[in-house]
Amino acid sequence: MTNYLIMEYVLTFGTLGFVLAFAYINIRQTEKQLEETRKRRQGIEAAATK
To answer: Is the pTM of this model over 0.70?
Structure first.
């Protein structure tokens, strides 16, 4: 019985850990893409005003 509970905890926290790590990586990639998009847009706007 206790082995079953331990395995259940391992699976639960392992899954939560994976989901949190994946979400963190996804957020960082999104921030990087937004930063690149903003730089590109600023360059286009600066070129258009010249």
So the answer is: no
